[in-house]
Design brief:
Elements lengths: L1 H15 L17 H15 L10 H4 L2 H9 L2
Helix pairs in contact: 1-2, 1-4
Length: about 80
């Protein structure tokens, strides 16, 4: 999962031009808007080869890189 965390961190950096930590708030802090979240989720889904169910697409599951990878582990 460490490789996935780094991948997500790099993808976010490419989208917002800022390096974020694994536990930094992304959605609640408004670093990521809805369009960026969609772009990020598409990249993650392509990387892992699985679709993230709609019911998991919310700040409780995606607000930090750590939360994202924990959510993805449940798929």
């Amino acid at each position: 999962m460490e490789a996935l965390k780094i991948f997500i961190q790099q993808e976010i950096g490419g989208l917002i031009f800022k390096k974020v930590s694994f536990d930094e708030s992304l959605i609640k802090s408004k670093l990521l808007d809805s369009i960026i979240v969609v772009d990020l989720l598409v990249s993650i889904e392509e990387k892992i080869g699985k679709q993230i169910p709609q019911h998991l697409v919310n700040p409780e599951h995606l607000d930090t890189i750590d939360l994202m990878t924990s959510t993805i582990q449940t798929l």
